[in-house]
Structures are given as C-alpha cells and as structure tokens.
UniProtKB/TrEMBL annotation, chain A:
This is Trafficking protein particle complex 10. The keyword Ribonucleoprotein does not apply. It comes from Mugilogobius chulae (yellowstripe goby). Residues 521-531 have a biased composition (Basic and acidic residues). Residues 14-327 form the TRAPPC10/Trs130 N-terminal domain. The lineage of its organism: Eukaryota, Metazoa, Chordata, Craniata, Vertebrata.
UniProtKB/TrEMBL annotation, chain B:
PANTHER family: TRAFFICKING PROTEIN PARTICLE COMPLEX SUBUNIT 2. Keywords: ER-Golgi transport, Transport. It comes from Mugilogobius chulae. It comes from the Eukaryota. GO terms for biological process: endoplasmic reticulum to Golgi vesicle-mediated transport. This is Trafficking protein particle complex subunit 2-like protein. Belongs to the TRAPP small subunits family. Sedlin subfamily.
Length: 1088, 139
C-alpha cells in the first residue's frame, strides 16, 4: 500500500479514485488486495447523472490505501483528486469476545473520525474464513450473530453498509458468489459517493462562477477549481466531460478578452497583459504541463501560457477520445485567436516573436498528430492538417523576410541582431525533445541560422501544402502579378465538370426562385417598416477623423437596438450602439506590423491631452524612483500609456507601460452624516449621536463653523467638552481637538478645527430625541434649547416602582412627552397597574400651591393563546353555498403557546376529566339575543341548526388543534360574512370555589344559562343584566350588583371570556359567496 | 463588416469583386481564388449524400490570421465569398448568413433584369449599393 506523504502529484491517467481501508489485520487485506483491484473494474456500472445528463456506463477502478486521519479532507479543502471517496473497514473477527473487547472500539474510533469529517461513505466488510471458524470451534457463535451485532451497532437503517465476504481465497461457488456481491456493493457505493461529492463540488463551483462580477474574483482561482473537476472526470475515464470543463473555461476566458475590447476591463486580466517574453510554442508531449499550471495557479501566467496550457489539456483529452482531426482544427483556430487576442489586449510583443510561436506550435501539433496516427490515416486526412502546414510555411516565410534570409544580399547586421533576439525568446529546448533530431525547436533554430538552411526548410515545408501553392503569402515570389492571369485557372476546376444547362432554362428557374425570395422579403419589409414607425426620431452621426491617413481607421459600425418587453412586445427603449468601439476609441497603430517594410514598426509617441513631466532627473544605477506630479484639473480616470525619456536630442520611448498605471482624479463636496451610536434611537432619553464631517475638496480653515439648525424633534443638548477626531482617508488618526459649541434659539454653531481636504472630522453630541408631534399643534411652537437646559433627570427606584421627573414649563397647547422604561428582574406579571401623578401650577404662582393630577392606567401583557380558523364547506355536490341549504361550518381551534404559569395552576386545580386539558367553550352565534357580548350585529345572515355551542377539551401542548363542525344555513344570497364565533373559557363547578372571585367572572355566569337553545327564554333577562355588568368592568361603578352575582356564580360552572388579544380569529372579516335558491323561486316571483 | 465580397460564376471566373482597402486588391483576389478550392471540396462532399436539400451556406471556408473567409453557393453553382477582418469579433455566424441572404436576393434581382446577360460581369448599381452597405466604409 502506498502512502502519499508528499505533496499530491497530479497525474490523471495513473490516478484512481482513492478508497481507504482500515483493518485490524494487515495481512488479511494484503491477501485480498490483488483480487479486489483486478476484479473491481471488470464490469461496468451505469452512472446516472444529475442535471439531466445522459447516464453512462463506467468501469470503476480504485486505489486502495491505508486509512489515515490526514487523508480525510479538512474544512474548506476543495481538492477532489485526493478526496477519499469510500472508506472500508475490514475485519475477520468472528469471536464475540474479541469483537466486544477490541474490534468494536476500533470500529467506533474509525466511525467517529469519519463522522467528524462529515464523511458518510463507508462500508464494513466482514471476512469469513473456515479456518478461523474451525480454530475457535469451541466458543464460536452462529456466524450471523457477529454480523448482526455489527449491523445493530453501526448500521442502523443502513443494512447495506455491512457486507460479508466468505472464504475469499477458496475457489468455491460460494466464495465467487460472495465476491461478486461484494464487488457489486462496492461499485454501487462508489458511484453513490461520486454522484454526491461531485454534485456538491459542482454546485460550489457554480456559485463561485456566479460571483465573477464581484471585484475580488480571479479567473485563475476559478480555473483551478474547474480544472479539479476535469481531473476527476479524466480519472473516471469520462474524457468527454473533462473536455467540457476545459471548453467552458476557454469560452469564459475568450468572453472576458472580448469584453476587454469593448472597454469592460476585469482586474485580473491585468496579469495576462504582461509583455510576451517567451515564445517557445505549444507543448503537447506532456499530459499535464506542470510549469504552466503553476504559473496559472500563482496568477503569473501570460496569455500565451494560459492558452498553451488550456490547449495542451484539450489536445490530450481529444486524443484520448480518438479525435485527432479535431485537434488540428482547434489548433488553427487557437493560433489565429491568440494572435488576435494579443492584439486586442495591446500586449507588447517583439516583432516576429509571434511568428516563431505560431511556427513552433504548428509543428508541435502536427508532430503530436503524427505520433498517434499511422501514415495511411494521415495521408487520407491531409485536408485536416494542410491548414497547419500552410500556416507554418506562412510564418516561416515572414520570419525569413524579417531576418533578411530571403533577400539576395543576405542578412544585414540589423537582421542578425533581430534573429538573436528571437532565438533568445525560444529559451532552452524542452527535455522531451532534446534527443529527437526533428524537433520543431531544432528546425526553427536551424532555419534561422543561414540563408541556405532557410531555403531548404522552407521548400520542405512548402511541399505538403495544397492551398499554399496558390496563396500569395506562401510563395517567396508571387507567381502571378496581374488580376487577369490569376483567374485563368488551369483545368477550370468545378466549372468544367458541370453540365451546361441551356441559358433560358436557367433564367426561368432563377425567376421562380426570385419570386419566392421576393415574397419573403416583402414580409420582412413590412415588419421593418413597422419597427421604424414606432420611433420616428432621426439619429445623425458625424464621424470626424483627425488623422490625416484615414485608410487604416475603421468605419463606425453602428447598429440599431430595440429593447422590447418580453410580455407584450412593446418597445421599451431604442438606441444606437457602436459595435466596434474598441477599434475606434483606441487609435490604431498607424501601420500594422505586417505592412511595414522590414518589419520594424516605428515607435510613435502618441499625442495625448495630458503629459506628466519631470525634468532634470539623475538616473542612478539600479532601480530609480521618480515622482511625477499630475495636474488634477478634471475628474476622471487617467491611464499612463507611454513613457518617454528625452536626453538632449535623443528620445527613448516605451510604447506600452506595463503593468498599466492608473490614477483617478475625483472631487468630492463636503459631507455631513449624522448617525446614532446605537440603533435605534430611543425617544426621550439623552443619547449620543455621531457626527461625521468629510471635508471633501474643502480645506477647513480656522474660524470655520458648522451651523446646525435646531429641530424640535431632536434638540442638541449642551455638554461640557466635545472633542473631534481628525483622520485622513486611510483612517489614520491625525489629530484631536476640542470643539467649542454655541447654541442659540435657532442654531447651534460648532467651530471647527482646521483640517486638510479629504479628511474626516468625527465628534459626538448629546441629543434628546422627541416623539414627533401631532399635526394639530401650531407649528410655531417650539421647544427651545433654553427650556431643555435643565436636563430632565429621572430617578428610578426599583423597589417602589416609582419614577419622578423634574419640573417642566408648559405653554398652552403644548404637549410634553415622558418616557419610561420598565424593567422586571423576575417574571413579567400579566397586568401592571400604573399611576401617573403630576403637580401643576401656573407659572406665576408659588410651587407650593400646585394642584395634583392623577391618571391611572393599566398595562396588560397579552399573548395569543388560541387561533380560531373557520371554514364554510358547501353541501356535497355543490360548488358554492346556496341560500336555504345546510352548509358545514368547520372551526379549527389551535393552541399557539405553552400554558402560562398562572393558567397552568388554575387548570390543574380545575381539572376533573384528565390531566392537562383546558376546556373551551365555543358558540356559533346566529341571533341577536344570544349575543351576550356588547357587539351589536343587526344582520343575522345565518341560521344555526342543531347545537350552536359546545365544549372542547384542549390539550395544553402547543399546536394542539381541535376541529368542530356546526351546521349552518345561509338565509340570504350574496357575499355573506362568516357567522360569529366566540370562544370562552369554561370553568367547571368545583373550580369556581377554589378561585378567588374576580369582578369579571360574574359576566359569564349568566352566559352559561344560554348555552343551550332550550334555555333561550331564560336568557333574556340574564343577558340584560350581564350587559350591565360588562360595562361595569371598566369602571367598577356598581359593586353591589356584581357582588350579588358573585354569590350566585360561585355555585355554578362559569364561562369566562379571554382577555382581548388572547384569541385570534382568522376568519373575522371573511366572506363566503352564497348563491340564491334554485330556479323555481324565480318562477314563483313571475307568477305573483 | 466585410472587407471583400466576391461573386464567382459557376465556371470559376469572377462576376463581381469588390474590396476595401483598394490598394490591396490583388491580395483579396488571391484569397478569394484560393478559397474556391475549399468551396469545391465542400460541394463535392455534400453531393455524396443524395436527396437532402443542400444548405447553400458553406460556413467558414478557411481562417487566416487576419481574415476569415466565408462561402455560399447558389443552386446554379454561383459562388459568393465574403472576407471579414478577424479582429471584428462582433460578427457572428448569423450575421454572415444574413449577409449572404441579402447578397443572394440582390443577385437574383440582377439576374431577373431582362437586359442582363447571364455570365456577364455584374454592373448593376443596385447590387453595388447593397454590397457597399455590407462593406467596411472607408471614410
């Protein structure tokens, strides 16, 4: 067994999914290992995939390693390759004693470590051997018991996690059977684990991709994540899936480069704009180019590095997939694309370097393809390779021109210099090809070495090119010089092969064709016109070209856009966009490299609106740091594009400054923000509020003051010393200074300490927040600073529950707010009696003559105990309720909360039927006279049939629900409100004596008598009396009446209403549609 | 947009070629000329499978570093070739298709002209206008 101690090496072909094994007896596993590793991949399994991907047959292989705690993935570790997909515990224990003694503990420890790492993919394998059985014959138990024990100990509910392998080393049918069932089990579990873990990984990856618009996102990081997935697919031999991952990465990157062209720059793209320093071509001989991968991982890869790496991976996978011709096609696309992308990103490249890169890459791809195909195949598919050959020839030719190898006089010293530069960028030859004589590297080096060698190589290259023979670039001397000679093609091509059709037949056919075409065009024409009608404004563009040579400037590529709403296809907006801004806004190099003679593009100092200059600079050996001063006239973002050093008459120009340097000029107005120190601001209490003053572009001079107009809702309280902290933009504290504050009636003036621009001043002031006044108050009344100067101090006495406030002066129609906070150390009582008393006297009189004012009120604690939900069910077979037909009224009563302390005691005392139930009374109200509550309901829309009230036993546990059904009959048609439902508390007879009589209880005594309809007559008088007593609750004005009731009440079971808010009625205002009675009713009307 | 648009007769001689910039005309003529080989190859490949309605649009004939060449063949084997600058990334396959369709429509109109002799170089002003609309305008 291997132990991957060192850094995990990534090599996917050799990699297999990791399965860890833990076993008491190492020898046991070693004996089985070979068979297991051989047998596992023998049969394919169907792998069902998520996201609607087609299921696949997959041959599973595994790398069995010793279980180690370090192998388990740590939190946040996203590595998938080193992820153990399955954990196996092997045991051959068949002795109960041994199992109890050590094996069980060992398993426990194993399970625990798995659980702490959140791994749920495990299996226990019990190996059965006859020898071991015989040896311990004496104290052996029936075989099943050990397995049953393990199953009951570890695999509750998952019996499939424990497998028996019997006599694995024997060649019996039983042994084979158990082998095959074990293998099947392992395959199933492995696949389950793959599906789960890969699914999770993919989800994480998608989340990461969605974040790509966020500023800190890095393509390289994402690349590594998605590549991990590709590696795993490759490991599972799912090359198609792996290739998809790389293609997605490819597309994502391409999109970003295109966006860059359109002016949308992602920050991470900066590293890919690094100047090209190495052009050693693609490397397709390694399955994974670790050097380049490391560069990408570190975020240091250049565009060519990334592209090369991506392509080498795609190529490897395509060759696995037996699609070599796609490699050639993609290679050509890639090479063209890279050249374009480098141009688009304005990456500075040495003249000819790209030609070298392309040449080497072409040859590398061709070599790779030749390596995996036989010559006959290659010849048959030459149409796929010819493009690459032509491109390579093309590049070799342009290199030859660049290095003076095709000129008659031979290379000049300038040409030689250039050659040396180009060769330097090739670097050393890769170790893979050092020994081969025909490596692209050697070929290029040799070709550039002399005129003769170049000619030989060039002609060699040229021969396989089919198209190249007539391509103007490919031939060293173009064979044709005039347009006329070009079109005299020998043989006539396809033209001669075609049978000559009589001209008239041709024209008729054409006419018919054109008619069809026209009809089509007319359709689209009307559409277009309709579009144009909707917006009749004209857009005019004048393109002014300020460059004298306008040949190279591309024309504006404008497009109309119509943004239509997807629902009704109405025009939301319309406009004109310029599609080729990237070409227009950036001025093209006045000459593209291929057109300039001898290839040397002249360095042009671009004229820009702004230049940062510094003079009289002394340069020292080594790194010099020079400070440039930037004028900051207009706000905006400035990018430094070129560097120019002038020494006397000599100018040195660096055409591109890399990495790109930017600075931003902005101007900010002074800002003041006021925010409370702690949310939310409490009314009535003096609190501190933070004032933050950003100076912006303004310099705070000595004597500057901040004036705050006082508002009546938040007056600023005077405080002794207020100091302001001055800090700069970086948040560093610069200074601290005491402020002087002066308040007048309207304004508070704060003198500010001097502060530099773009600094912040932070200070705190004490304010008193008032509850905003009502609208009826005259607006000119103000609570001025002068009055609040006596700060209200509030004393609180926790023992006496008394609070006092200092004196205040009040004006006419003035309202004053006082705020208290009541704190309870223990349980909050259900209700709290409060008494507010104040002494008042007119201003001109003595304090001693003040009169008292008392106001008492009560604070109630309310929790909703029950919720009542009613529903009206139309009679069976009817979609709606019908007038005069019986409907069912279903009432659901749900207990919402735990019984409160007081209630519980009460219940326990009152309990007669069983423990922990509350009796509830419900009543369906249909008539006025039954309605004992003081709510007047004139309309009785419903007739209650059968019992209108009843008793419910409610368990005290929360969410206990009770359902009651009452028969009701609508009396009218239309949208009727639901019948009234009232829920009352029922206190049985025995309980009444035990409870302290309270004044409220008497009310419900009477209602008891109304419980049944038969008692209706009696009710009349009682309800009147009860109404009186309802009123008496609040005022308790008539103690005599209530006490007389009390006497009677004590002997009878009572009904007690819940205090307001304790019962919530969901269907209070609901209505139900009632249809009029059947048609014969109308007939009747007609008759009368 | 396009840098060169060409109409080639079925006997492989040009009926119409226009290109911008004009000073590099020879180069474009070569490009179009060489692309005919690919056109031929593509047509013969399609012809083998009998019965199916042939797609007139041939797609990308061959890309070069600077240009992309697209082809289109009418039912009477007249070839249209459009050369596009490869730095123009905003042009998608769909746009190229619609350009060809436009070109074909206009070409049909030219052929419908009773005074036009099929096989003669195209001198129609309308056709010229359509082509100019598809080309890169030189200021």
């Amino acid at each position: 067994m291997e132990c991957p101690e060192e850094k995990p090496i990534i090599y996917t072909m050799e990699n297999k999914p990791i399965v860890t094994c833990e076993c008491g007896d190492q020898a046991l596993f070693t004996s089985l290992y070979t068979t297991l590793a051989q047998q596992l991949p023998r049969e394919p399994m169907e792998w069902r995939r998520t996201y609607g991907r087609a299921p696949k047959m997959i041959h599973l292989e595994a790398n069995f390693v010793q279980f180690k705690e370090e192998l388990l993935p740590k939190e946040g570790n996203k590595a998938l390759l080193t992820f153990p997909f399955l954990h196996i515990y092997w045991t051959d224990c068949c002795d109960t004693e041994a199992y109890k003694g050590s094996v069980k503990d060992d398993m426990m420890r194993w399970q625990n470590s798995l659980r702490t790492h959140g791994s749920a993919d495990w299996v226990i394998i019990v190996v059965e051997n006859n020898e071991t059985k015989k040896k311990n014959k004496t104290n052996i138990l029936p075989r099943s018991s050990i397995i049953d024990k393990i199953r009951s100990d570890f695999c509750n509910k998952q019996n499939d996690r424990c497998v028996v392998l019997s006599e694995p080393l024997k060649d019996s049918s039983r042994s084979q059977e158990s082998w095959s069932s074990l293998l099947l089990k392992l395959r199933t579990l492995l696949l389950m684990s793959f599906t789960k873990n890969l699914g999770r990984f993919e989800d994480d990856m998608r989340t990461l991709r969605e974040k790509r618009t966020q500023p800190g996102w890095s393509f390289c990081d994402y690349f590594m994540v998605q590549e991990e997935l590709a590696f795993v697919f490759e490991m599972l031999q799912q090359f198609e899936d792996a290739l998809v991952q790389y293609d997605e990465l490819d597309a994502l990157f391409t999109q970003y480069v295109l966006n860059f062209g359109a002016g949308d720059t992602a920050k991470w793209l900066g590293s890919f704009c690094a100047p090209v320093r190495c052009w050693n071509g693609l490397l397709l001989r390694r399955p994974i180019d670790m050097e380049k991968r490391d560069l990408i991982q570190k975020g240091e890869a250049s565009l060519l590095d990334l592209r090369s790496y991506l392509f080498s991976r795609q190529c490897t996978l395509l060759i696995f997939l037996q699609r070599p011709w796609e490699v050639t096609q993609r290679a050509l696309e890639l090479l063209h694309n890279c050249v374009q992308e480098l141009r688009l990103l304005e990456v500075s490249v040495l003249e000819g370097a790209l030609d070298c890169w392309v040449f080497l890459s072409c040859l590398e791809v061709l070599h790779r393809i030749e390596g995996c195909c036989d010559p006959a195949q290659l010849a048959a598919n030459c149409s796929h390779t010819v493009g690459l050959w032509a491109y390579a020839t093309d590049k070799l030719k342009s290199l030859g021109e660049l290095c003076g190898l095709v000129s008659e006089k031979g290379p000049t010293s300038e040409d030689l210099n250039r050659t040396v530069d180009l060769l330097a960028g090739l670097g050393d030859e890769r170790p893979e090809t050092v020994n081969s004589l025909q490596s692209p590297y050697k070929k290029l080096k040799e070709a550039l070495s002399s005129v003769e060698a170049f000619e030989r190589h060039y002609l060699l290259r040229k021969s396989p090119c089919r198209w190249a023979s007539c391509s103007p670039d490919a031939a060293p001397v173009p064979p044709v010089h005039s347009l006329g000679s070009l079109w005299r093609r020998p043989g006539g091509g396809a033209g001669t092969a075609l049978p000559h059709a009589p001209p008239c037949a041709l024209t008729t056919a054409r006419r018919q064709h054109s008619l069809r075409r026209r009809a089509k065009q007319r359709d689209s024409g009307t559409l277009e016109r309709a579009q144009r009608l909707s917006h009749s404004g004209t857009v005019e563009f004048t393109q002014s070209t300020n460059s004298p040579s306008s040949n190279g400037t591309p024309a504006l590529d404008l497009d109309e856009i119509h943004d239509r709403s997807p629902t009704d296809n109405s025009l939301n907006s319309t406009g004109v966009i310029c599609k080729n801004t990237h070409l227009l806004i950036r001025r093209h190099n006045s000459s593209s490299p291929s057109e300039t003679p001898n290839g040397a593009s002249p360095l042009v100092m671009k004229e820009e609106a702004q230049m940062l200059t510094v003079q009289d600079v002394t340069l020292h050996p080594g790194i010099n740091s020079i400070k440039l001063k930037a004028p900051s006239a207009d706000p905006g973002t400035y990018t430094l594009r070129q560097l120019c050093a002038t020494l006397g008459q000599v100018q040195f120009i660096l055409p591109h400054v890399y990495p790109s340097v930017r600075y931003e000029v902005y101007s900010q107005e002074p800002q003041l923000t006021v925010e409370p120190l702690e949310e939310p601001l409490l009314a009535g209490l003096p609190q501190f509020v933070k004032f933050t003053l950003l100076t912006g572009h303004y310099t705070v001079k000595k004597g500057d003051a901040l004036q705050l107009s006082n508002t009546e809702s938040m007056p600023i309280l005077p405080s002794a010393t207020v100091s302001a902290k001055i800090s700069n933009t970086a948040g560093e504290l610069v200074g601290e200074q005491v402020l002087s504050i002066q308040s007048s009636e309207k304004v508070t003036s704060i003198s500010l300490p001097p502060a530099a621009p773009y600094h912040s001043l932070v200070f705190q002031l004490e304010v008193l927040c008032m509850i905003p006044s009502g609208a009826e108050r005259p607006p000119n009344e103000r609570l001025t600073n002068g009055e609040v100067r006596h700060r209200p101090r509030s004393y609180s006495h926790p023992d006496t529950l008394m609070a006092a406030i200092d004196q205040r002066t009040l004006c006419s129609k003035h309202s004053l707010f006082c705020l208290w906070e009541v704190r309870w150390t223990e349980e909050l009582p259900p209700s709290l009696h409060c008494l507010f008393s104040a002494h008042f006297s007119p201003l001109n009189q003595e304090l001693s003559t003040s009169k008292p004012f008392h106001y008492s009120f009560q604070l109630e604690r309310v929790t909703t105990l029950y919720s009542v939900k009613a529903e009206i069910v139309p009679p069976t077979g009817e979609p709606h309720c019908r007038c005069g037909l019986l409907c069912a009224l279903e009432v659901h009563i749900t207990r919402l909360s735990e019984a409160a302390e007081g209630e519980l005691i009460e219940e326990n005392k009152s309990e007669t039927d069983g423990p922990k139930t509350t009796k509830l009374m419900y009543e369906g109200k249909n008539q006025e006279k039954l309605n004992i509550s003081c709510i007047a309901d004139s309309s009785s829309n419903w007739a209650v049939c059968g019992r209108s009230s009843g008793m419910v036993l409610m368990p005290l546990s929360p969410n206990a629900t009770h359902k009651v059904q009452i028969e009701v009959m609508p009396l009218f048609a239309g949208h009727l409100p639901f019948p009234k439902i009232k829920v009352l508390k029922y206190l049985p007879h025995s309980a009444a004596t035990a409870i302290q009589p309270d004044p409220d209880s008497c009310v419900e005594n009477d209602s008891l008598s109304l419980l049944d309809k038969s008692l209706d007559d009696q009710a009349d008088t009682a309800s009147i009396r009860s109404r009186g007593s309802v009123h008496s609750v609040g005022s308790s004005s008539d103690p005599a009446v209530s006490s007389s009731h009390q006497q009677r009440a004590l002997n009878m079971p009572r009904l007690e209403p819940f205090s307001p808010g304790q019962v919530f009625n969901h269907s209070l205002t609901q209505q139900v549609l009632v249809l009029p009675a059947s048609d014969d009713h109308i007939m009747e009307v007609n008759a009368t | 947009m396009a840098v060169c648009i060409a109409v080639i007769a079925k006997e492989n001689y040009p009926l119409y070629i226009r290109s911008v910039p004009t000073q590099n005309e020879l180069k474009f003529h070569y490009t179009v000329h060489t692309s005919l080989d690919v056109v031929e190859e593509k047509i013969s490949a399609v012809g083998k499978s009998i019965g199916d309605q042939r797609e007139l649009y041939l797609g990308l004939l061959y890309p070069t570093e600077d240009y992309k060449v697209y082809g289109y063949v009418t039912n009477s084997k007249v070839k249209f070739v459009i050369v596009v600058d490869s730095s123009n990334t905003s042009l998608r396959d769909n746009e190229i298709r619609s350009m060809f369709r436009k070109l074909h429509n206009s070409f049909t109109d030219v052929m419908c002209n009773p005074f036009h002799n099929p096989g003669d170089p195209i001198q129609s002003k309308t056709f010229d206008g359509i082509v100019s609309g598809m080309m890169v305008q030189t200021a």
